[in-house]
Design brief:
The longest helix has 17 residues. The protein has a 7-stranded parallel beta sheet with strand order 1-2-3-4-5-6-7. It is α/β, with parallel strands linked by helices. It is built from 14 helices and 7 strands. Bound molecules: zinc ion (2 copies). The site of one zinc ion has 4 residues, from loops. The site of one zinc ion (ZN) has 4 residues, from loops.
Length: 356
């Protein structure tokens, strides 16, 4: 039998684990092993496998070593076969149609801020999912816990994105962007000149989430009135508890133990402003966010808003979480023609540019 690509198999396992929202340490084992194996010439890896010494490599444990050995022997690793056999649930027809209509994702993170993977790995996973584009939206400077990008680091990131785009398959593009903090006074946490330069700007509230209603409403209205803001991210800031049974480790992202309520603001006023100004309301697909809640999606729809169904992915496998957002949007009757990431990249970029 001809050998399979063990690196591809390890990455595929990591992707499926992320997609299934499994604990981060489990995913990391496979990504680290893929890295360790990729760092060696194929012949050397094969030699170690023959000698049963793959676990001598730092980053490779018993489980990942078995996967590599099986791949090299030309067999689909048992671990991968089991995962693939038990993955995901089918979407109903409406949600599936919405998912099929999506051409890209407008809210994603890389290891430049608090994501776990390099930009390139995120992009390659997006290509595999059939996306035409990925908007890279790492955090802004004030969000220090998430290693938000200073203006200088963002400029460097733009250079790297330009380079990566040259090497990626034709028909796919990384679009530049940011998830910019909406500060306490409603201003946006990045230089104007940079915001104007980015393809897409997502703005989110991450601090003072329990601001009093009037204050929070004014804060969000100020942000929505900013011509650089294109998409209002996870508008209520709520966290629903989605910790899967059997996961007992420290709180992983996506596995929040405790719920957090919605921020209090005049949703009708904010959605009316979004509709008037052409600011898009995000439907955030993360299982622990599910933001906005369905009753607010319906109100935004009635107000005439457009939507973006985004993953807010912090790892490649999470890019497939759009299905969750599609399910919620379909339940609320959101039609595909109200969703901006059903548009081709060119239209999305032209639309965003026309706003600022
Ligand atoms: Zn956010
Ligand atoms: Zn985010």
């Amino acid at each position: 039998m001809t050998a399979r690509d063990p690196i591809a198999d390890l990455r595929r396992i990591a992707f499926l684990l992320e997609r299934a929202n499994e604990a981060t340490y489990r995913v990391r084992a496979f990504r680290s092993a893929a890295k360790a194996v990729a760092a060696l010439p194929t012949a050397e890896v094969a030699e170690l496998a023959r000698a049963g010494k793959l676990t001598d490599l730092s980053g490779v444990g018993a489980v990942t070593a078995r996967c590599v050995a099986e791949s090299l022997a030309g067999e689909e690793p048992v671990y991968l076969r089991r995962l693939a056999a038990t993955e995901g649930t089918d979407l109903d027809a409406e949600a599936a149609a919405l998912r099929t209509a999506l051409r890209g994702d407008c809210h994603t993170h890389s290891d430049w801020s608090d994501g776990g993977s390099p930009i390139e790995e995120m992009a390659l996973a997006a290509v595999e999912l059939g996306h035409e584009y990925l908007v890279l939206t790492d955090h802004s400077p004030r969000l220090k816990v998430a290693r938000g990008l200073t203006a200088d680091r963002l400029r460097r990131q733009l250079e790297q994105v330009a380079q990566l785009n040259e090497a990626l398959p034709p028909g796919f593009r990384i679009l530049t962007g940011i998830e910019v903090d909406i500060l306490a006074d409603g201003t946006l946490d990045q230089d104007e000149e940079l915001l104007a330069q980015l393809d897409v700007v997502v703005g989110s509230v991450h601090s003072n989430l329990s601001d009093e209603r009037g204050r929070m409403t004014r804060r969000m209205l100020t942000a929505v009135a900013n011509p650089h803001l294109d998409i209002l991210g996870h508008c209520t800031g709520r966290m629903v508890s989605t910790r899967p049974a059997g996961v007992t480790g420290p709180g992983d992202r996506g596995h929040r133990r405790r719920a957090r309520g919605e921020s209090d603001f005049d949703a009708d006023a904010v959605f009316a402003a979004c509709a008037e100004r052409g600011v898009v309301v995000e439907i955030n697909s993360r299982p622990e966010r599910q933001d906005p809640p369905k009753r607010l999606i319906r109100r935004a729809l009635e107000a005439g808003c457009r939507f973006a169904i985004n993953t807010d992915a912090h790892a490649p496998g999470q890019l497939d979480w759009q299905r969750f957002g599609c399910e919620r949007a379909a339940r609320c009757g959101v039609p595909a023609d109200r969703v901006v990431n059903t548009w081709p990249a060119q239209r999305l970029v032209a639309w965003a540019a026309s706003r600022s």
